[in-house]
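not sure who needs this but someone in the group chat was asking about Carbonate dehydratase from Uliginosibacterium sediminicola so here u go. i didnt clean anything up, its just raw.
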Amino acid sequence: MIRKNPTGDLPQIHESAYVDQTAIICGKVIVHENVFIGPYAVIRADEVNAEGGMEPIVIGANSNIQDGVVIHSKSGAAVTIGEHSSIAHRSIVHGPAEVGNNVFIGFNTVLFNCRVGAGCVVRHNSVVDGCDLPAGFYVPSTTHINAHTDLSRIARVNASATEFSEDVARTNVELVAGYKRLQNEF
């Protein structure tokens, strides 16, 4: 469902993107080329700041927002998902937040008030809260990273993790084309 927010902003969705019929895209959301938005995803840009303004939620080209993902923002803060990035099933991205290009965010992960640099892999059931994760870091499953985390103890992404991330992104771009072909059949 595509709908306006209370201030009248309507999502801008590139014609090449695929949005599942069960997804909800609300308000000041910009979805770029070849994006896959899966079943029951919710992307909602509807809260305003103290001055009544709001930054957009932007989903970069060739990225995928998988089943049950929630993307929202507090008080009109910006949320940006870079290009060729994957936000896996049931994750939450709550702004202010920025996810760089070529990033993989694993199942049930929570991102809040943070930046995740380009090429990072954040595995399943992890939390990144209140900090900036530099480019190329590998966060193991069930890790909690915050402003007090010693990032020197966090590993760098290896070739296997990068290959996995690229495969997920590539697979979901292929799904966009497949679902777009089927769109008028159901």
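also The chain has a mean pLDDT of 95. if thats useful
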